[in-house]
Specification:
Number of helices of chain B: 12
CATH class of the largest domain in chain A: Mainly Alpha
CATH class of chain B: Mainly Alpha
Oligomer: heterodimer
Number of helices of chain A: 13
Strand content of chain B: under 5%
CATH superfamily of chain B: MetI-like
CATH superfamily of the largest domain in chain A: MetI-like
Strand content of chain A: under 5%
Structural class of chain A: mainly alpha
Radius of gyration of chain A: 26 Å
Largest interface: A-B, 92 and 96 residues
CATH topology of the largest domain in chain A: MetI-like fold
Helix content of chain B: over 70%
CATH topology of chain B: MetI-like fold
Number of domains of chain B: 1
Shape of chain B: globular
Distance between the termini of chain A: 62 Å
CATH architecture of the largest domain in chain A: Orthogonal Bundle
Number of domains of chain A: 2
Shape of chain A: flat
Chain lengths: 294, 297
């Protein structure tokens, strides 16, 4: 009887401890998610609040809804707005083009690293990676001078070129890992069946490595879409400024148009958000396969 | 037989080499050269005056430069360690979740989509001493303070680090989580049967298995540590009174505001070296960790 009691007691404390741990776990998780979400939500929320309310002191906690900032933003330069649509278009053109080119070039490089043996392979590889590690600011100084000499400053072309070079190393890294996963027998079999190496690549190996390529593309796109240090120096006018640079238009010497900036920020995040959702699964497997097994 | 002059691998690598050579290598060579001249944007003829290592000597004897250098190293050390610990913590928390894990994972990836400059503005807004979220919340809770988050040197450094950690922890969390998913269950169960405490099995089984994943995250991060430039530039611009001046903001100030390109390029080379040291270090660690797990290829 005594022992039974003891056991029941121990069980109960055990259960209690488990319960406490569960609550702790939930709380920790909740706080983490809150810290991750609140800054972003704050931006979205403020893009729908009138400026008076954003600047209000003491703060107003129940928000009023307004589309004022969006109207000003899309209304064009006339209403003190910012030529957001041009920025959006520039960003889109530059990011999509540079991603496409970087993925093609990177894929061919990654394939070379995965499939061929040659002297000094690993030093080539690390060497390429080091170019990615060059800080954007450090590169922007000389690139600015060189581009100005060649006359491609303030053009889409110049920015695309810069972003392709920036994205190629990482694309090589990711796709290399993926091509390595594919057994060599696959393309050998295809070649025996009468495919050329080129056909074998597109018909057999590319479909298998697709998710790696997708994740590489996402990373390249996000890098170009979000890049600031280079873009701020290599672009000047409405015709070539991208959205990250456009954000600065909302700052004056002493004041910042927070509402307008938040609205542009929302516009900037949406495409990135949609894209990332679409290929979320590939993104994670791309990073891990590319890195660990590569 | 077709006449082949170049090996196939070289042809496949050629586009990458050409692009990188024209866009990165040539400007870098140019900037290396100009770091030995007193080049000023406003006076182009200064490009042809060779002054040897005077720029480097000037930098190395400059207290401001060393302060920025030390601060950058401190910043990177603190930030990377905090990101690693938090990322590990978040991954372990999420691994225990039984429902809605996909949603949580998506939320975790949220900061990865943010542009660094946007993160800068976002936290400049949130830490604003007058209308920022943090001070508003503090005041509404009854603390009658308006903490000068971005004006006081120490607080500004904290705010910048917070922004950087917010932006980059998710890379660690996601990769470590992927490692946890890939982990075989048997060793953990065997350890439990053998009477290991949870801490022991974490320390001796889970952590060693996660090491390569941690190093990938570190390597990916070390490739673009300089993203912090965007954040700092926006949030404080290196101020107040240079208290948050990092190597990168000092460089861009010297180059673009003072137009002293030669000097700025010399600083650029120091910062490039710093990045390269970080990257090589983590690449080494990564391949060592891979070899240990027999994943080398």
């Amino acid at each position: 009887m005594q022992m039974d009691n003891n056991l029941a007691h121990r069980n109960r404390t055990h259960r209690n401890r488990k319960h406490v741990l569960k609550v702790l776990h939930f709380t920790a998780l909740f706080i983490t998610m809150a810290i991750i979400c609140i800054p972003g939500l704050w931006i979205v929320l403020n893009s729908f609040r009138p400026t008076v309310e954003i600047m209000a002191k003491p703060p107003v906690w129940n928000p009023t809804f307004t589309l004022e900032h969006y109207r000003a933003m899309f209304g064009g330069a006339g209403q003190g707005g910012v030529p957001v649509l041009s920025y959006f278009r520039n960003s889109l053109i530059v990011s999509v083009t540079s991603t496409a080119i970087a993925v093609l070039i990177g894929m061919s490089g990654g394939y070379a690293f995965a499939r061929y043996r040659f002297k000094g392979k690993s030093s080539y590889f690390v060497g390429l990676m080091l170019f990615r590690a060059v800080p954007g600011v450090a590169l922007s100084l000389p690139l600015f001078i060189v581009f100005a000499r060649v006359g491609i400053i303030d053009t889409h072309f110049g920015l695309i070129l810069a972003y392709v070079a920036m994205n190629v190393p990482f694309t090589i890294w990711l796709t290399d890992g993926f091509f390595r996963q594919i057994p060599k027998e696959l393309h050998e079999a295809a070649e025996i069946d009468g495919c050329t190496r080129w056909q074998a690549f597109w018909k057999v190996e590319f479909p298998v490595a697709k998710s790696g390529v997708a994740s590489a593309a996402i990373f390249a796109f996000l890098t170009s879409w979000n890049e600031f240090a280079l873009a701020s120096q290599l672009t000047r006018s409405v015709g070539s400024k991208t959205m990250p640079v456009g954000l600065l238009d909302f700052t004056a010497e002493f004041t910042i148009n927070w509402g307008g900036m938040c609205a542009l920020a929302v516009l900037m995040i949406i495409p990135a958000l949609i894209l990332t959702f679409l290929v979320q699964k590939h993104l994670i497997s791309g990073l891990t396969f590319g890195g660990v097994k590569g | 037989m077709i006449r082949r002059r170049l090996p196939e691998w070289f042809i496949l690598l050629l586009p990458a080499i050409i692009v990188i050579a024209t866009v990165v290598l040539i400007p870098l060579i140019f900037s290396l050269y100009s770091s030995f001249t007193p080049y000023k944007l406003t006076r182009p003829s200064t490009l042809w005056t060779w002054i040897g290592t005077a720029n480097y000597e000037k930098i190395l004897s400059d207290g401001k430069f060393w302060a920025a250098f030390g601060r950058t190293v401190l910043f990177l050390t603190v930030v990377l360690n905090v990101e690693l610990v938090l990322g590990l913590g978040i991954a372990l928390l999420m691994n225990k979740v039984t429902w809605g894990q996909r949603t949580l994972r998506t939320i975790i990836m949220f900061p990865m989509m943010f542009s660094p400059i946007l993160v800068g503005f976002q936290f400049k807004f949130i830490f604003n001493d007058n209308i920022g979220l943090v001070n508003n919340v503090l005041q509404s809770l009854g603390y009658n303070v308006a903490l000068p988050w971005l004006v006081d040197g120490k607080l500004a450094m904290f705010s910048i680090m917070f922004a950087e950690v917010w932006m980059s922890t998710s890379i660690f969390a996601i990769l470590i989580l992927a490692g946890l998913f890939a982990m075989p269950r048997d060793p953990l169960e065997a350890a439990k049967v053998d009477g290991c405490t949870p801490w022991q099995s974490f320390r001796h089984i889970t952590l060693p298995f996660l090491m390569p994943f941690i190093f990938i995250a570190m390597t990916i991060r070390s490739l673009d540590v300089a993203r912090a430039y965007d954040i700092v530039q926006i949030m404080t611009g290196g101020g107040p009174a240079r208290r948050t001046e990092l190597l990168w903001t000092l460089m861009s100030r010297t180059g673009y505001v003072d137009a002293r390109m030669g000097l700025a390029n010399a600083m650029g080379y120091v910062s490039i070296l710093l990045s390269i040291v970080f990257t090589i270090y983590f690449f080494r660690k990564l391949s060592a960790a891979r070899a240990e797990l027999g994943m080398a290829g």
